[in-house]
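Quick review question:
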């Protein structure tokens, strides 16, 4: 699936991902290939995603995620990103 992680100032990541773990407001959840459409608010926690090159983790304060037609877009504030 395609993953884009965006802040108001820049694009943190854009490319393929095999799985994405997110800190949702009702608990953590994972998105996999061909996931059903979803929009969710995010809370403070760790966002992690796996690619063919390995796993990357980011600490975020909050944000939003949309998954539609095998494309995932994560929106977070720039001051909230720490790897």
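Suggested answer, residue by residue:
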């Amino acid at each position: 699936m395609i993953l884009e992680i965006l802040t108001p100032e820049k694009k943190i990541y854009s490319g393929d991902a095999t799985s994405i773990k997110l800190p949702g407001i009702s608990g953590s959840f994972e998105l996999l290939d061909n996931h059903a459409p979803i929009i969710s608010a995010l809370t403070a926690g760790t966002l992690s995603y796996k690619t063919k090159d390995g796993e990357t983790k980011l600490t975020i304060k909050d944000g939003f995620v949309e998954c539609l037609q095998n494309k995932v877009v994560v929106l977070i504030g720039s001051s909230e990103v720490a790897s």
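Why it works: Residues 2-80 form a domain with the ATP Synthase; domain 1 fold (CATH 2.60.15.10). The chain is about 0% helix and 65% strand.
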